[in-house]
Design goal:
The protein has 503 residues and is an alpha/beta fold. The chain has 15 helices and nine strands. The strands form three sheets. A five-stranded mixed beta sheet has the order 4-6-7-9-8. Helix 1 packs antiparallel against helix 2 and helix 8 packs antiparallel against helix 9. The longest helix is centred in the middle third of the chain and has 67 residues. The chain starts with a strand and ends in a 7-residue tail after the last helix.
Length: 503
């Protein structure tokens, strides 16, 4: 009663999806290639422009140094001249090796003038061994330097023109790739339309025939007509329908009972589906209410890369620093870190606050070079620096100062966090110390401005025990100084591998 002409729908869908995926990969590859080429072109232009600027700066420096030498005959000035000349030569070498043919030829001409300048200096300085430089020789030297320096405007134009030629080539390639991509997309859309049309037709036409046979069965005609199907799946359906049509007359009553049972099961299933949907929505809302830190880091990295591509270098750097600071805070807030990582965390925090406050707050770090990498609780130093910023110098309009000092000797490491804020009198300092050392209600204490100091103090106690000292020094109009002293054992490896006293 039915004929099977084609393969399965699944295989056709898989084949079509693979073809579409192949073309999508081609379009993505072309787009990425164009972007990479454009970025590379911009970087080459930027570097060429920078090298040309450095050449004229080094040329100017060489002129100043040689004039100083000719006035004083100080060998240090001559050495500085040689250094500037060598750097300028390096700049020219870069431009010659990274430029197109026309600009490379211009660079050769510029190099010839530069060589004449160096040779003239060499002749003049050699004659110094026998007599002083004459006014004519000095004027000739300055004139040659002026000629080279006067070429700066023209050569910056040459570099720009070189970039414009490359830009036109890149844009032409980009336009061609966009045209190809559009053509591929149009072909894909046309192919998709044709495929979907025939796919729907291969499904709906057999179904229409089945509907006609069902209408025949409804009026009692069980000799149904032959149906041509377009896939294996429809064929299975048609075979099942044929078998049902053959046995339907014998099992009408049985089917009716099964239909009633099926209806009850369907109602029950719908109820179960409703309950499951409610549970699923509840779980989804719970998941949506959570912030995924990795999503935040990835978002900051993407923003940083876009900022870098768009030329916002400071914004890109600030995004990277903020991401590193957030990641360190989440990873180390309740874990063991070391003093080097803690110092780096403070430096990142200082970079962010410097971008925020500008010249209003001056941040200083004085770190000894031989600080041992001892273990310490994560996020110990940054909260103290933050406390100095938000409470110590918050009311200072200008010349505010916050400093981190880390000193090491054989027996101990001394860490100081200083600010030049309004400070505290002896009564305020005593109350603060008593609150930190004798706290009864942490919820009530959390409302005060000393919670950061309390957390640091408590974790240091749990981590080091009696192998450390924590002290706060202050007086009116003299700021606040927090001093942490960590005692080292005779074996430095014991301090590096110390096991924490808290989880």
């Amino acid at each position: 009663m039915f004929k099977n002409y084609h393969g399965s729908l699944r295989m056709r869908l898989i084949s079509f999806t693979m073809v579409i995926l192949f073309f999508v990969i081609i379009i993505i590859t072309m787009t990425n290639f164009s972007s990479i080429k454009l970025v590379k072109t911009y970087n080459n232009f930027s570097e060429s422009y920078n090298q040309l600027s450095l050449f004229y700066e080094n040329l100017k420096g060489s002129s100043e140094h040689i004039k100083s030498y000719l006035y004083s005959y100080n060998t240090q000035d001559y050495d500085k001249y040689i250094s500037s000349v060598n750097k300028a030569q390096g700049n020219l070498n870069y431009l010659k090796s990274h430029s197109k043919e026309e600009l490379r030829f211009r660079c050769v001409l510029l190099e010839n003038m530069f060589v004449n300048y160096k040779n003239l200096v060499k002749e003049i300085t050699y004659d110094d061994m026998n007599h002083r430089i004459t006014e004519d020789e000095y004027d000739e030297l300055m004139h040659l330097h002026g000629l080279i320096d006067a070429t700066s405007i023209d050569y910056f134009k040459y570099v720009t023109n070189d970039m414009l030629l490359i830009k036109e080539s890149v844009l032409e390639s980009l336009r061609m790739q966009i045209g190809i991509a559009i053509a591929i997309i149009i072909i894909m859309l046309a192919a998709a339309f044709i495929f979907v049309y025939f796919l729907i037709r291969s499904i709906t036409k057999p179904i229409e025939s089945i509907v006609e046979n069902i209408n025949s069965i409804k009026v009692g005609r069980f000799n149904v007509s032959e149906v041509k199907n377009g896939s294996k799946e429809i064929g299975v359906l048609l075979q099942a329908f044929d078998e049902m049509a053959i046995s339907l007359q014998e099992y009408v009553n049985s089917i009716q009972e099964k239909a009633e049972l099926k209806q009850k099961l369907l109602i029950k299933e719908n109820e179960n589906l409703r309950i499951n949907k409610t549970l699923t929505l509840s779980k989804l809302k719970t998941l949506q209410s959570q912030i995924n830190p990795h999503f935040l880091f990835n978002t900051l990295n993407i923003i940083s890369k876009f900022a870098y591509i768009e030329g916002a270098q400071k914004t890109s750097d600030l995004m990277v620093i903020t991401s590193d600071l957030l990641r360190y805070g989440l990873d180390k807030s309740d874990k063991v870190s070391d003093i080097i990582q803690e110092i780096e965390c403070v430096k990142n925090y200082i970079r962010i606050q410097t971008a925020r406050f500008g010249d209003r707050i001056k941040f200083e770090t004085h770190i000894d070079d031989d600080i041992p990498t001892i273990k310490m609780p994560g996020m110990t130093l940054q909260p103290l620096i933050e406390n100095s910023v938000t409470h110590g110098v918050k009311d200072i309009i200008s010349n505010a100062r916050v400093a981190l000092v880390v000193q090491a000797n054989e027996n101990e490491i001394i860490i100081k966090i200083e600010d030049n804020g309004k400070g505290m009198d002896s009564d305020q300092l005593e109350r603060l110390t008593m609150n930190i050392d004798n706290i009864d209600d942490i919820d009530e204490f959390a409302e005060s401005t000393s919670i950061g100091i309390y957390n640091v103090r408590r974790r240091l106690e749990m981590f080091y025990g009696d192998k450390h000292k924590f002290n706060i020094e202050s007086s009116i109009d003299c700021g606040v100084t927090v001093v942490i002293c960590i005692y080292l054992s005779n074996n430095r490896e014991d301090d590096v591998d110390v096991q924490p006293n808290y989880s």
